[in-house]
Batch of 4 targets.
Target 1
Amino acid sequence: MQIREAQKRVADLNRKMRRRPLDNPDFGGLWNHLREELDEIWKEYDRGTKQGLFEELADAQVLLLALTHSAGADMETELEAKMNINEQRTWTPPDEEGVIRHATDPRTPISDDGTTSDET
């Protein structure tokens, strides 16, 4: 299934679930539900149950698509644009919690002394 098609199916399901109309979306409710699903992902990962983990990852993806639709964005377009940016970035080594962050942003000009406006 293509991302755009999945986003449409999620929007149709939200209407079936009688969420508030998408022109007045319940963004906060979707956000709170996503946060619950993120906690469930970690619990399934911690348990080591692949099928449970995969189901929770899918639940979170459905909610991300619902949030994207509620915000009026097209996830396929946004993903393509973001991947183009990320592919141009340089990345830090993992920190003490294993988080890797971008060290540079191709949208931020670098001055003659090698610094960026992000560093000020």
Target 2
Amino acid sequence: MFRVGRCIIFVLLFITFNWITSPANSNGLTIKKICGYVEPEIVGLNMDMRSGFIVRIVGTEAHAITDSNGYFEIKGFQSTPGKTYDIQITKDGYLKRMIKEVQINSSIYIGDGATPVYMWAGDMPVKGVQDDIININDVIQVAMCFNAIKGDDNFNPSCDIEADGAINIKDVIAISKHFNATSNDYDSVNISPIDEEPEAPENLKSSWVTGTTVSLSWSSPASNISGYDVYCNDNLICTTTNTNVVFTGLTPNTVNIIYIKAYDSKGNRSLPSESLIVTTTMDDHGDTKEMATPIDSECEISGAFQEVGDLDYFKFVPEESGIYILKTIVGKTLATKIVDNQGNDVGSAGNNEYNLNAGFEYYIVAATTSRTEEYRFLIRSKTTKPDLTVVGVNVSSVLVGNPAKISVQVKNVGDVVLRGSFRIEIDIGEQKSVLWADCNADMDVGETIKYDINNGIGGISNWIPDFAGNHNITVNIDTKNEIDEVIEDNNSYVYVSYVDDYPDSYETAMHIEIGQDIKGSIGIASDIDYFYITPSVTGIYQIELPNSKFTNVYLYDANKTQVEKTVISYDARNNRLKCYVKATLKANEKYYLGVKPANAQNYVFENYTLTIFEVQ
């Protein structure tokens, strides 16, 4: 009986072990990839409209989201032989497409670059739900936000089919194209097995790099390559048919991982090339013609001079011949000129106007005449319109719970005098249109006017922050689109305002009581929190920051002279325990306490508790 029992236990253990270690789908196939292209069936399509479609294999967790080329790729799908699957494609504002009964026995293409999977716009979500038909309910949704622009309370991004930041007649036309269509009305989709994918590009290298721009080159792996996708930090940056590219938009003094994928005429993607690690420089733009940052017309360019005599080069190739105007937006000492490909000055016709030829390479040279400073400029065709842009934001001294006044500097960088009224609206974080001002003043070409923001929700005229730290203040000008401007999409500006929890000067120091614990934080390297105490009796007192690792406290008398040195205590392993000051304080005299980073150059954010007590 004992032996039989042992045998039964052994058999049960053997069965359990095999059940645990056997794969759940031992007869399944691992599919290398399921990929393809998705594209909205819309006239005047832009690249941003191709992204964001969700491609999902129904009944599984497998899915992918299209990139800016409309490309998606599901990797490593576990398929069951003989089973068919439904593939669903969705996006807010588009009619759901179901591709039914697809056999997935090998890697497959669902559509390709030449014949993508087309999606019809018009099925608007109502309370997050779409009804799989384009009908009058969708027209009503568009009507409810008709003429709204991005930033308005009633702006619905799902209804902005044309992705132009406005709900208008073009969106209605896009809906009407497939009115009354259902998901069953879609045409069939081409599905084909994937041929052998291209080999990965080789010899990826950088010939030069600045703070914002990098020049790349690589070798083609084969002769059947149609183009290349360039990725930076796993984001698709651009697509090119060349084996070299210069792209911009990087951040100075950062480490970036870059790789390339090749694709063939059917859209087959290769594996990534070997990664190239590129560290951008502190200097944001190149200081020679060969290292110039490429720029486009009507795109605002920003930079900063590191030292007097610093030069920044920008490469500009006009698409059309004509008169172009070089506009300085910010930069009191900014000096600019344009040279041709041989380095010869292109003479200005006056007022920074230049006659440029289409397809020619020109270089804008920016310099500072007397000091280091930040700058902003743009180049564009000459017009007969004004153009508004934000050149400065001022927020009065900001503390949690205290009212702060906001003012905005607006500049006319257009080509004629501005005549008319416009509105400035302020977003604070995720709160839209918290404050605003209605402006009505003529503005000459190149003139800057400061406007105080003095209206708000509920009749408030100031911003009252409710927490310490960085706050994004977004300034939107001409929000009602009352001014016909040269460039309509340069009317938003983000300003980061640091809100302190306690005053940062002796003069505004906060009074606290002995025995009272104060909780605060040091949010930036230059942050100092000031307090003052007035002991009622003479005695020995200790002011400390228990458990502080990166923050110190200092004690000063009424003349702002340090009373005693700050002490840092450590444990046996040299780990910092706390920071404190012990001193004899006189009754009824004023003493200041300053809390600040222990090392501003190696600043680390830290919350602290300030404790004051009399030593017995």
Target 3
Amino acid sequence: MADETKHMDYLNDVCSKDILNLQLKESIYQGSWKKRGGVGAFMMLARKWDRIENMLTEGHFDQDRWDIFTEITRKPNGDDGTMLAEIRDLRRYLILVEAEMMARGIVDSQRGNQDVKEDSNKHAFQAEEPIHSGDKMGPSGISSTGFYNRQNDRDRFRNK
């Protein structure tokens, strides 16, 4: 069985390339991604997701549909128009959104992710507390109902 955490060895490489790419693109486009405000930024993210979804479903038989690893394997070079290029673009736009919220003083850049702490004994990250009351944390630090609670989060946010 392959090492299930081998991908962690590549995080610094992925993130440092994201930073270099974002710095280059921002020097050219100078914030055009946020020109139309938050709704425009969301629509930009939605278009990227739509593109990924279309690439996974167009012309594929059922056994291949939704298999993002297989799709990347077909064209792993990351050239424009490939699945890997779309994933990179989406991830980088998400980074820009969070950085923008820090620049506006909405998100505290000094706090980082308040839901993780470094466990110096294990050199791993674990959640400090459940996101929702009643959640049980798994060994990965992801709550047992985390995925399904996203709708509850949206509803709670809208009702404030």
Target 4
Amino acid sequence: MKRLGLFVFVSLLMVGMLSSCKGPAGAPGAAGTAGDKGDTGPTGPVINSMSVFPILVEKGGNATVKVNAKSYTNLALSYSWSATPGWTITVGQGTDTVTVQAPLLFNVVGGVTVTVTDTNSMSATGFASIGTADGDWNIATLIETGAGDALNPQVATDPNGNAIAVWYQVDVTRNSIWANRYVPGTGWGTAQLIETDNTGDALYPQVGIDPNGNAIAVWYQFDGTRNSIWANRYVPGTGWGTAQLIETDNAGDASGPQVAIDPNGNAIAVWEQSDGTRYNIWANRYVPGTGWGTAQLIETGAGAALNPQVAIDPNGNAIAVWYQSDGTRYNIWANRYVPGTGWGSAQLIETDNAESAYSPQVAIDPNGNAIAVWYQSDNTRYNIWANRYVPGTGWGTAQLIETDNSGDASHPQVGIDPNGNAIAVWEQYDGTRFNIWANRYVPGTGWGTAQLIETDNAGDADAPQVGIDPNGNAIAVWYKWDGTRYNIWANRYVPGTGWGTAQLIETDNTGDAYYPQVAIDPNGNAIAVWRQSDGARSNIWANRFE
């Protein structure tokens, strides 16, 4: 059931003849009025009514608009229609009834204007307003039926709404990497094993997808001696390829891979890897038609470097961030990749030395502007910080983006739209429980005021994630304790309206649900995935906002 998020109406602009139109000799007529000729009624056409069905349509759906007009002098009438930008007249131009197609956007109002003209060039104009329904969450769906625990789902979606979810699942002997694909109008397929190396456990996959639906999954896998980084690629119409080792440094374990893909299908993977003494940050690049390159060290610091994240813009420029020890505390570092040039020099992007900074995340817009967020101790509590990168200028000054000193704030996530507007979400303690907070960045204005986006005080809310579409609409998801079990919740941000009311998006009360992830397509459709216990094992579930 779609929610009515807008007041939608039909209105008439009673317009009569235009001032530039000439009526019959002796007709007085004036702009915006219908000319009279004695007591015989208006000399120009009159719009008596306009009807719209349905008034509220699905995004991309159709409405029928009919105008009821009359000439009191029995002249023939012609009809000219125009639509609000984004709306399209598909059938009926030149008649009294048209079909109008809505844009692929939730919760917007538009409409059509009709000009009715008689053979004396006298006119009347009317306007019919039409709206699109707001989206809503569907019913949660189980997307795998394996025998063992399934954990750590991740999801990515392409501009057409096709999505790929990946996770790891135990088969009694070892953990393996699995995937499933969602196609709009068809739904989820059958879960598929995407690696067959049975030497040891394969864990913690990540996935990225390009506009053509090509996807790359990365994970780490034990070979009997050490953990290594592997990848596989999905091509629509062909399926998954053969899993491939993408680094061959056998000095020590490699783990925590992340991946980002640009519109041309070029991908960059980053990970942490031990050299036998400390962990370092490594990267490798995939180019369609060529494959993976040679893994490369992208920082040379003296201390352990951990938890890399990566984002990539449409031109293939990428930014990686991580935290790294200087021997006293952990700091936030970044490096930038430019096609044709390669990786630059790693750079410290915060200089607050009060205490350690952890777990950075990064998002990048089509112009290459990036925002990194992290949490950092001030020796009393953990706070949320951010910094912004601008091509040609570099990193700015790190900024505190929340000032609630009740308790620790941690584990931020960030998303960004094509205009550079960003939303950060995090979990924060209020002295009694953890809650979910958000803040929004607007270029030229900066960060706003942090805002609580859920108010259910039954128990802790944890591990938020956020996705944002090109129109700046965002969806945040998290898991929350209700006093009996953990459930999956979501909230939606709409520019000009703000955050809505937090909503439960699954109602299976058999067992706890944890660690949701979310991806959102350009039309505002979103897919959330999570793990949930059925009382015997953990399964992978999904729900779609549309």
